[in-house]
TrEMBL record:
Family that this chain belongs to: Belongs to the glycosyl hydrolase 7 (cellulase C) family.
One GO location term (cellular component): extracellular region
Keywords for this protein: Carbohydrate metabolism, Cellulose degradation, Disulfide bond, Glycoprotein, Glycosidase, Hydrolase, Polysaccharide degradation, Signal
Low complexity composition bias: residue spans: 408-451
Full protein name: Glucanase
EC number assigned by the record: 3.2.1.-
GO MF annotations in UniProt: cellulase activity; cellulose binding
Signal peptide: 1-19
Taxonomic superkingdom: Eukaryota
Region of interest (Disordered), ranges: 397-453
Length: 488
């Protein structure tokens, strides 16, 4: 009897220590999105990655009720006067991804700007992060390496931005005693615009701080314009505009678009290469190169009116004084070397209508057609699909010989046979597959654990959990509720 009483008392105390932050109403099922890591010698190996939607898209409410801990302007200061009290009072829920505008099918991720429910259109504008099997963000180290993906921008109209980019977030998402969910709940966002958000590292942003970090915009695009832009930072000073390469802005106005050299009505394979001065993965970043593949042919990057066809360190620093003052490509390269989180988003912009990307000297769009109200009424179905994401040694993620392949020939890229079909068929199958999301979500929930060790505070089990179930030495996996077990 005595022993039982002691155990009960302990169990009652534990949630207070760990903060009752994990809700029990919607399971946190992060949609599976396999990716590949490639080497020249070993070919491509499939990674058991998934995507998680940003923290702010999750419902955060009172632990014993359904009152929201957030308000239209911030956080409820009665429920959340301090980090510790907020963590005791509030719980974060999982998200229904389809209604948040996110679907996955095989190795393809589709993001919708708007979603419809019972005939009502609402703005979804999701932003998601690539998560590793251990419940932390997958850290891509791209210095001296390349990244490849296929993209469908055919329905992204003027004013839309379908983005694939990197930010130097913490791998854990800032997981802590006040934020046990961490990366598996999408916390810890930062970028070179230094956004001021309600939450920082998944806890109360008491100091109203901006979350600044190095950002590498690999792809910001719609059917009419595209930009590739490094944004280096030093501390809380960032290059907000960046030294970007947009073919139209560089004077090559017929290169990218409907019927252009790169034809945006068709699927596009995009390869971005980060060259160092000495060819190693630890050297100084000297050049960022871009290649495209369409119809089985490698297409060289646009040549600007001044003859430039890549972002070189000298061009970045000479064209952008802020980049120069922050160390330019050298600083960007150091961040790429340490590792950055892969981010996917779709958004439009009420203030500027995305004119900086696709209008005036940057693109063919008329300055007012990017108005979100117009987009919502004329093309509410606008979406983008990213698929077949691979990174690794330069030249290892695509077939340089014929140009049409989607990876070096290796039997180790098992499960990718369908992804090796031409881009055209893979995108077609993605489209028809988006309606079968329910079954792919159901499948995700039954996926067995797939390796890795979970660290202190990390998730190690619960309904829908497909990540690591073994805790690092010194910690044990303890159930907090049916949806969440964590390493304590
Ligand atoms: C904040 O939460 C308290 C307690 O649930 C509630 O009474 C109050 O109305 C909330 N305030 C706002 C602005 O939502
Ligand atoms: C939630 O309910 C439990 C059980 O009734 C209670 O022990 C706990 O104090 C409540 N928590 C809050 C923050 O109200
Ligand atoms: C997030 O937490 C980490 C340590 O866990 C800290 O170094 C970092 O400064 C925090 N970020 C912000 C923006 O406060
Ligand atoms: C645009 O870039 C292509 C390289 O893909 C080049 O052949 C062409 O001359 C460029 N056009 C202009 C107008 O600079
Ligand atoms: C933008 O792209 C769409 C789709 O290809 C095309 O229909 C439209 O004419 C383009 N707009 C401009 C201004 O070029
Ligand atoms: C720009 O687009 C808007 C909205 O489609 C249209 O009303 C306007 O006439 C267009 N302006 C020009 C100069 O084409
Ligand atoms: C991915 O999961 C499968 C099935 O659980 C496993 O066999 C494979 O080793 C995992 N891959 C990696 C890279 O961990």
């Amino acid at each position: 009897m005595v022993q039982i009483l002691v155990l009960t008392a302990l169990a009652a105390v534990l949630p207070l220590i760990t903060a009752q932050q994990i809700g029990t109403q919607t399971p946190n099922v992060n949609p599976s999105l396999p990716t590949w890591k490639c080497t020249t010698a070993g070919g491509c190996i499939q990674q058991n990655t998934s995507v998680v939607i940003d923290w702010n898209y999750h419902w955060i409410h009172t632990v014993n009720g359904s009152a929201s801990c957030t308000t239209s302007t911030g956080v409820n200061s009665t429920l959340c006067p301090t980090e510790a009290v907020c963590a005791q009072n509030c719980a974060i829920e999982g998200v229904d991804y389809a209604s948040a505008g996110v679907t996955t099918s095989g190795n393809a991720l589709t993001l919708h700007q708007y979603v419809q429910s019972n005939g009502v259109t609402s703005n979804a504008s999701p932003r998601v992060y690539l998560l590793g099997a251990d419940g932390n963000y997958e850290m891509l180290q791209l210095l001296g390496q390349e990244l490849r993906f296929d993209v469908d921008v055919s329905t992204l109209v003027c004013g839309e931005n379908g983005a694939l980019y990197l930010s130097e977030m913490l791998a854990t998402g800032g997981r802590s005693q006040y934020n046990p969910g961490g990366a598996s709940y999408g916390s810890g966002y930062c970028d070179a615009q230094c956004p001021v958000q309600n939450w920082i590292n998944g806890t109360l942003n008491t100091g109203n701080e901006g979350a600044c970090c190095n950002e590498m915009d690999i792809w910001e695009a719609n059917a009419n314009a595209t930009a590739l832009t490094p944004h280096p930072c030093e501390g809380d000073t960032c290059d907000k505009s960046g030294c970007g390469f947009n073919p139209y802005a560089m004077g090559n106005t017929s290169y990218y678009g409907n019927g252009g050299t790169v034809d945006t009505l068709k699927p596009i394979t995009v390869i971005t290469q980060f060259y160092t001065t000495d060819g190693t993965t630890t050297g100084t970043l000297s050049e960022i190169r871009r290649l495209y593949i369409q119809n089985g042919k490698v297409i060289k990057n646009a040549v600007s009116t001044s003859g430039l066809d890549s972002i070189t360190a000298s061009w970045c620093s000479s064209s952008d004084a802020t980049a120069a003052s922050l160390g330019g490509l050298t600083t960007m390269g150091q961040s790429l070397g340490r590792g950055m989180v892969l981010i996917f988003s779709i958004w439009n912009d009420n203030g500027q209508y995305m004119n900086w990307l696709d209008s005036g000297s940057s693109g063919p769009c008329n300055a007012s057609e990017g108005n979100p109200t117009l987009i919502e009424s004329k093309t509410p179905g606008t979406y983008t699909t990213f698929s077949n994401i691979r990174w690794g040694d330069i030249g290892s993620t695509f077939d340089q010989g014929t140009g049409g392949g989607s990876g070096s020939s290796s039997s180790s890229s098992s499960g990718s046979s369908s992804s090796r079909a031409t881009s055209v068929t893979s995108i077609t199958s993605v489209r028809s597959a988006t309606t079968t999301t329910a079954s792919s979500r159901a499948a995700t929930t039954t996926t067995a654990s797939n390796g890795g060790t979970a660290g202190h505070w990390s998730q190690c089990g619960g309904v829908g959990w497909a990540g690591a179930t073994v805790c690092a030495t010194g910690y044990t996996c303890q159930a907090q509720n049916p949806y969440y077990s964590q390493c304590l």
